Amino acid sequence: MAIPILFVLSVFLGIFAYTTLVERKALGRIQNRFGPNRVGRWGILQPIADGLKLLIKEDIVPRRADQFVHFLAPVIAVIPSILLFSVVPVGTRLVPVDLNIGILFAFAVSTVSVLALFMGGWASRNKFSLLGAMRAVAQVVSYEVPMVLAAVAVVMAVGSLSTLRIARAQSGGILNVTNWFVFRPWGFVGFVLFTIGAMAESARTPFDIPEAESEIIAGYHTEYSGFKFALFQMGEYLASIAMAGITVTMFLGGYNGPGSGPGWVGGLISMFWFFIKLAFMIVLNIWIRGTWPRVRVDQLLGFAWKVLLPMSIANIVAVGMWHYLTFRPLAWVATTLWLVLWFVTLSKLAATENVAPRTYRYAS
Amino acid sequence: MIQPLTEEKQFTRTPGSEGLIETQTLEVSIGPQHPSTHGVFRMDCVLDGETVVALKPVMGYLHRNHEQLAERMAWLGSMPYTDRLDYLNSMSNNWAYALAVEKLAGIKVPEHAEYLRVIMSELTRILNHSCVIGFMLQDLGAWGTPLLYAFRERERILDLFEAVSGSRMMCNYMRFGGVRVDMTSKDLAVAKNIVSRFPRFLDEFEMLLTGNEVLLARMQRIGILPKELAINASISGPMARASGVEYDVRKIDEYGVYGRLDFRVPVGNVGDVYDRYYIRVLEMRESIKILQQALHDIPAGPHVAPEVKLRNFKIPPGDGYGRIEAPKGELGFYLVSDEGGKQPYRYHVRPPSFINLTTLEDMCLGHKVADVVIILGSIDIVLGEVDR
């Protein structure tokens, strides 16, 4: 019990620290610049320097802020994110806590973080903070729904809420790969839905509207400085890493990969595969952040309710079909057709006639 | 502890709010310290939830007494100050001022110098437009990627400006009757190289952005400026053309050698943010065409009219208005010379960004806060020019 918890606290906090560096480096390369390269070779000491700087920075609390809630919000922002890691099976021999309601626990805990955002925004007594907090609540609550429904598909297929059993259900097949849920029609759709939902839930671009820099300065953490600000950032990054971990577990086969197995060697190989997949998800997040503009708050909510929600319900039906059509080729064809039909219909419905490429004339 | 919001003075009740829940409007002061007001500009917004119900632009934080200063100094003395009006486009500011003085004093500019002015001015235009699109997408939340791509191209142009005029941004390049220094053949080769490379950058830029769904959804039907309002508010430049007004000083006045150059003026239909974005892209393509012709046709000759004196330069009494198509719109200088004629008696600037900014509220009403910043970005303001 103690070793997995120590592992989670040390390894994932380290991953968090270096994700910030990798993100800045990768964004730098995407944007045709170098990124941090002053502190240590390739800037590898940058996270330490940043942490130190934020620790010794002056902690400013607005005079009219609610002192206690203002203090409490960043703390609450971090704790649920760390708790999320407790149900992520990292390897065949390294599962922090095997809860039989693992997925439910993950969702329950991740929802708590929205409370922190709202507390922070409200207690700061800043209008930009308040706007950010309002946006955060609307966004997280809306995206929770399609995300949970996307997870329901997996839970139905496995028949358990335990993350470990979900990971085990994806072992076997050719090279431990072909049984990953992402290689099923419903699994692929669920993966896309869940990834979008996870990005929105952790307020990552293109859904970073609660802290939209160009609109509301920094949203709910406008009035936070020093390490309280760092805690907010930490909570956000840890949540997105943990959500990446849960996505990997549910759809990308978890720790399964060529060579993974129950023994010591297999266990080490399984950890290797898990972290490779985790890195893939993190880099995907960074890549999207570097290339996409931000959506507007009403478009974001419309997208959640009008596109993601019906699609995730259709996906649940697809899992049901998959379960009852035991003749596999038929199940493949039926579920694929069903999902493509829904996708086409929803994208037709979601597309407004206002938005289209235009042609231009020239003055005579 | 937190007091209820009703006790806060600045929260006023919406007069017409009906419904089950009693709602209040929220007054937010965006700026002068804000990441996307493009300088020290302030917008007093009244919000109903996220929707803008009133917006008042507040200007003057960067007032530097430009016009009064110019009335106290010799004609040539305010040439470097014009650089600081629209500090992205010092070359075209110089030209507008030089043109006004030349009109007033009746100076004839040699042909070589006119071509140099066209080259510099059009390079300024592509520099400005690419940066503006970058800034606008920064406001859209694209995290600086398009902006830094635009800055990569801008850097090449700025290097050329530095090689020719000695300064990257504050060029102080034009003189009455010509330009300060001639471009060497090496400089011209560099300019040709920039021009030949630029379409590739523009294609890449467009490939990444123009068809992007998020960008289309954010930009189309946002901040519509009707054609009538654009004319009534004397909007000029790409903003007017995006609203369908066929107005380009280059075509109307045919100042410089624009009458001889072959280019088209793109015009939009809707007048929304997307049109203002795309008109700029199309204008850059036209500028490339102008530059290719100008660099090809440039004749030999003096770079400045030899009869114009630098010292003791006097203008007989009279008044004159010189205007050019600056990247942001019609930039005009109104000058009055009186007895003595050593300095302007009256010096007035018609700044395009300031006049284009006047319709901000009309465009923003009913849109979300998030749209306000991109509408402002699409107007393309530089505070040095707005406040002067």
At a glance:
Chain A is mostly helical and 364 residues long. In chain A, 67% of the residues lie in helices and 1% in strands.
Structure description:
The complex is a heterodimer of chains A (364) and B (388). With 364 residues, chain A is mainly alpha-helical. Chain A contains twelve helices and one strand, in the order H-H-H-H-H-H-H-H-H-H-H-H-E. In chain A, helix 5 runs antiparallel to helix 7, helix 7 packs antiparallel against helix 11 and helix 9 crosses helix 10 (264-291). Chain A is globular, with a radius of gyration of 22 Å. Chain B is of the alpha+beta class. In chain B, 45% of the residues lie in helices and 13% in strands. Chain B has 15 helices and nine strands. A three-stranded antiparallel β-sheet of chain B has the order 1-2-3. In chain B, strands 7-8-9 form a three-stranded antiparallel β-sheet. A two-stranded antiparallel ribbon of chain B has the order 4-5. In chain B, helix 3 (90-105) packs antiparallel against helix 4 (111-139), helix 4 (111-139) packs antiparallel against helix 5 (145-165) and helix 4 (111-139) runs antiparallel to helix 11 (273-297). Chain B starts with 25 loop residues before the first strand and ends with a helix. The interface between A and B is large, with 47 and 56 residues. Strand 1 (361-362) of chain A pairs antiparallel with strand 6 of chain B, so a sheet runs across the interface.
Largest sheet of chain B: 3 strands, antiparallel
Structural class of chain A: mainly alpha
From the alpha carbons, calculate the radius of gyration of chain B and give it in angstroms.
Answer: 22 Å
Query: Strand-and-helix sequence of chain A, N→C?
Result: HHHHHHHHHHHHE
Low-confidence stretches of chain B: 1-13
Largest sheet of chain A: none
Low-confidence stretches of chain A: none
The percentage of residues in β strands of chain A lies in: under 5%
Strand residue content of chain B: 5-15%
Number of helices of chain A: 12
Total strand segments of chain B: 9
Shape of chain B: globular
Q: Would you count the extended β strands of chain A for me?
A: 1
Let me know the average pLDDT of chain A: 86
Q: How far apart, in Å, are the first and last alpha carbons of chain A?
A: 78 Å
